[in-house]
């Protein structure tokens, strides 16, 4: 793994603990179960207002905050208890402890980086990717990652990368196998700003959008949808959410990936269960599916067409 350069100073966070294994996935509640704004309790309205205005969560999409408050609001009507519960949930959902480089340092380094030479660009991107736990895991397989992924699906013209985080910095490798227009989605404005600043200099036909894709009624359309090592996190946020998103994505093909090992270094024992969920969804919908495995990542492709 490429070591972090002086520009990308570690933030001094303690090593992240292993993520808890997500609960068994179930089908999500039907649309409309979460109370509408007009029916919200005073506690829910108060906590939404407080947390969306809080500096700590200024980069988290307001819809993400509101969705968590409304769902936690089913369990308590006490504003103080509700805020405590939602803050704990936001810590897990935002998962900023996984970003080991300071965003401000990343942005300054980006402004100074030599991105004109393709090899220098890739070398610098490897340094950036090393600054987030998820993309750092992929570094040993990065050269083989997109050839393997695109070997599972027909050539797309558009790619939607859901919960992309720092993955836009892998677009130089994507470009080696595809000219597809890349659009990333993330509820964290920090990643959106960094990704767009990089793409504006290197791949201006691509972009990152600050959106919350798990809320009811949100539509994402592309030839290929990517949920890279994020499905199990969505299931941890709301059981059934990842499966429902795969189902409703307006994409011809969806590739879902999982780490082969948990953050504690042990085998990712939750993966077989999630793969079976996806396979069952494909069978129920009359879709086909395929699979490929790299040393660090397991890829499942759902073929809707």
TrEMBL record:
- The answer to whether the entry has keyword Nucleus is no
Where on this chain does S-adenosyl-L-methionine bind?
132-138, 163, 186, 228
Keyword set for this entry?
Antibiotic resistance, Methyltransferase, rRNA processing, S-adenosyl-L-methionine, Transferase
Asked if the keyword S-adenosyl-L-methionine belongs to this entry, the reply reads yes
EC assignment: the record states 2.1.1.179
| Pfam families, per database record | FmrO
Which portions of the sequence form the region Disordered?
1-39
Q: Per the record, what are the reactions this protein catalyses?
A: guanosine(1405) in 16S rRNA + S-adenosyl-L-methionine = N(7)-methylguanosine(1405) in 16S rRNA + S-adenosyl-L-homocysteine
**Gene3D superfamilies the UniProt entry points to:** DNA helicase RuvA subunit, C-terminal domain (1.10.8.10), Vaccinia Virus protein VP39 (3.40.50.150)
Q: Name one GO biological process term.
A: response to antibiotic
InterPro entries documented for this protein: rRNA_MeTrfase, rRNA_MeTrfase_GmN_bac, SAM-dependent_MTases_sf
Q: Low complexity: which segments have biased composition?
A: 10-31
Family statement? Belongs to the methyltransferase superfamily. Aminoglycoside resistance family.
Q: This chain belongs to which protein, by name?
A: 16S rRNA (guanine(1405)-N(7))-methyltransferase
- Origin organism is Micromonospora echinospora
